[in-house]
Write a structure and sequence with these properties.
Blueprint (H helix, E strand, L loop, with lengths): L2 E3 L8 H11 L6 H10 L5 H4 L11 E3 L2 H13 L13 H12 L3 H7 L3 E6 L7 E7 L5 E8 L1 H4 L4 H10 L8 E6 L8 H18 L24 H4 E4 L2 E4 L24 H8 L13 H17 L5 E6 L2 E7 L8 H13 L1
Parallel strand pairs: 2-3, 3-5
Antiparallel strand pairs: 1-4, 4-5, 6-9, 7-8, 9-10
Helix pairs in contact: 1-4, 2-4, 5-9, 8-9, 9-12
Length: 350
Amino acid sequence: MQAATVLAALALALGSAQAQEARIDCAAGDKACGIRKLRAHPARQLAFWKDALDKPLADRVAPGGPELVDYLTIDNVANGYPQRPRSPAHDPAFLADVRGAIASVPAPVRKLLERKLVGVLLVEDIGGTGFTDEVVDAQGKAVAGFIVLDPTVLRAHTADNWITWRENTPFKPSARHQLAASIASGADDNRRQAIQYILLHEFAHVIAIGARLHPSWALPPSEVGSPGDYPYFSLSWRISNGGYASVHDDRFQRRKDIVFYFGPKLDGADMRSIYRSLERTDFATLYSATHPGDDFAEAFANYVHVVMMRKPFAITIRENGRAVKTYRDCWEQARCAAKRRLIEELLKGG
């Protein structure tokens, strides 16, 4: 399973897709074939990355090479996605924005990444903005991770433009109901700030590798074992009928209808009630409520952004142009206190 922040699906020609499928010898949607090839792929092996972990974090940002493009192509074909990744065009300004976004992240976060993040690689048409996957050692143990960013999707986005787009994706368009989100103010409302917030989410996925905060996204729920072995996970999640369920589902019954990026199930008229329900849980953001891994990634990103970096986070819902609901961060509220403690303990280790 990929850990991804998805923004756009850009369809390519069928002939190109068929050529790629023949090359990797997996049919579109054949997940079993894709999983076998991905597990054995060089890009997932720590040996492939050699001395990456000895470089400064800024030097781990680079265009993705052919091996990584091949890896992402296999993943897309196996999942039935139409996008066919490719190495990016030369774009020094975008590289500078990524490096600048990383440089201004708080030192405790960067320290946690030093021995786990093998690289932030740029690849075009991956099917989303961000992708994180595990890297395993010679014994097959997940010990590190890599992040992929797609410049083709991110080039035109400012911070507030991107977060507003993302937070609207669970809801069907409505002329009467609008949602606007903000994670930046003034001159900070730029592409670099959008990249940084996305990276904070993906950084959390990397930090979680091997940390037993929640089960690995590569592990089926049926193989998780005791949920109590994962302190962050056990605050909000349980295993039910072979899948993940939230401990809040009795009072947040529409949680299962929250789908980001692909096919909204909620009406615009549901916005206010959904955010009211969210406030009765310990999920930091609506995206947190979708999956255990994204619960942690979203909470971590939001905590670092709001508490450590003192930057804004607000979601305003309007009906017929009138503001009817504003949702803000939860870090000073009792409902998020347990998660705040775990995140702060983790950061002390950094």
